[in-house]
Amino acid sequence: MTEQVQEPQRGGDTLKLIAAAVLAVLGFVGFYYLSSWPVWSRWLLVLVGLVLGAVVGVQSESGVRFWQFVLSSRIELRKVVWPTKDETWKLTGLVMMVVLILGVFFWGLDALLLALSRHLTGQGA
């Protein structure tokens, strides 16, 4: 069994994460602050801020762990067995039938309870 020991973050890692967040936020601030610039260049500024923030963030210990998580998630995603088109259509039809049957059942139950409550309260006469 593999045990992972959580080590406290070093001060440099915290500074890297703060710098990454500041770079990403500066991209958005620049988008609104530089409203006289063309829209395409403002969006490019946002994109550059996000990319630089991601690059700086991945350099931290948390960023490295996050990237390892992303890579292992991709490996697990390749193991998924997706249903065939025929299976998908059959299951979709089954779900629709169950929804229809339950809809009719609850409509009938609602009508029965409505009639019963009107009879008991004397409002149905």
Query: If you compute it from the alpha carbons, what radius of gyration comes out, rounded to the nearest whole angstrom?
Result: 29 Å
Figure out the total of helices.
4
Mean pLDDT over the residues: 90
The best one-word shape is: elongated
Counted beta strands: 0
Alpha-beta classification: mainly alpha
Count of the domains:
2
Largest sheet: none
Give the N-to-C terminal Cα separation: 73 Å
Report helical residue fraction.
Answer: over 70%
Order of helices and strands: HHHH
What is the topology?
Blueprint: H1 11-33, H2 39-58, H3 61-78, H4 85-121
Helix pairs in contact: 1-2
Give an overview of the whole structure.
This protein is mainly alpha-helical and 125 residues long. The protein folds into 2 domains: 11-78; 82-125. It contains 4 helices and no strands. It has helices at 11-33, 39-58, 61-78, 85-121. Helix 1 (11-33) packs antiparallel against helix 2 (39-58).
Task: Please supply descriptive tags for the structure shown above.
125 residues; elongated; 0% strand
Write a short abstract of this structure.
The protein has four helices and no strands. Helices cover 78% and strands 0% of the residues. The chain is mainly α.
